[in-house]
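This section describes the prediction task in plain terms. A model, or a person checking by hand, is given the sequence of a single protein chain and must write out its three-dimensional structure as a string of tokens. No templates, partner chains or ligands are provided. The sample shown here is typical of the held-out split.
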Amino acid sequence: MCWKRYSGWEMALFAIGWASFISVIVILLLPIGKGPQLKASASAMPPVTSPAFLKIISHSMAVPIDQGPPVETLTDGDAFVRALIRDIDGAQHSINFMVYIWEDGNFNDMVLAHLERKQRQGVQVRVMLDAYGAQKAPNGKLQRLEQAGGKVATFRSLVPLPWNILRNTKRNHRRAIVVDGVTGYTGGIAVADTWLGEARTPQEWHDFMFRMTGSMAARLQGSFAELWARTTGEVLLGAKFYPGAETTGGTIPYVTLSTSPSPDLYEAESFVFLSLLAARRRIHIETPYFLPDGTMRDVLKQKAKAGVDVTLVLPNHHTDQKSVRWAGQRIFTELMEAGVRIYEYQPTFTHAKLLLVDGGWAVIGTANWDNRSRKINDEVLFGIADSAFTASLEQRFVEDVGKSKKIELKDWRQRGLLQRVLELVSQAFVQQY
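The expected answer:
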């Protein structure tokens, strides 16, 4: 190549391009979120049925113990959409809508039509997108909402400039949809047509969304408002967002965790770790992306060896991230040798996120069992200490096990060479999953 034929500005652009490319490669392979493995102290974690359990969670995580009303579980997209549209149409003051994925389609058109109508009626509508998760969002249709007076903001950027690429690798993975400050939704569902339906075909994903009222809705409002202020500079205040007396009441103990991980603080990982340590009888996990680090692997194996029923429900080949599935499968052998039972959900892709411990503790929200949820992305989690709520989720978990195929250790040991190679190669990018 003859460099003399290029002008100075062309060479400068070439250098910037190469620097950006190298930065992307470095970020992909960088061990983001590395740190010491968590280990239990000399004292045993009390069981989830003990009042001391929730106090330790509260003290260790520096989060208050709240009390709220019962939580409604909505299974799959159609049930969620019906409830969501009803609540949007009943809004009087404000609608704050934050999800990770936002794509054009029927779901988008339905939601935006109702949001725009409420905005024209005088309800304040704010939509929070994520730069990565909303790459397929219809900008023109969202602009119509803005033209009606609504506000739309995007968290972070996808511009691969060397000085901000590390910052932009963080994503807003929270789901926090709040109406009038009194009704909120969180869970795994976002705005894309794959979530429509009742998970009857591979084109209809299986998932859960949770409808919350009272103080839980206020906590979700705070989870939205925190990132909204960080992105737009607008601080949400007043009765339109926090109506006070209407967000109190209820007798169900719970804690909320709105995580924004830093290199020195991985709240989601600690939260899940403490929950697992408390298990005496069973740990039931359903997750779309299963990549536990050494800390989580060790505690799952230790509990299984101690006689705890550790059962996982994971996606089969219907997953939307095959490399994540392969990377997670690399540790199947050691988990099953310890006594962990692994099932793969068959009808479609399961995007559900559940952690259920001993029939008395349920962890729900947006976090997956991957490095990004533990140590990179913004998430929102609720830990609910209620036997009735946990029992209702156990029933759904058992139903999902019934729709799943168990992975047998003897068969897994005989998997082919290609499968093993895919697992090994996929593990190289585990820090970015």
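For orientation: The CA atoms of residues 10 and 293 lie 44 Å apart.
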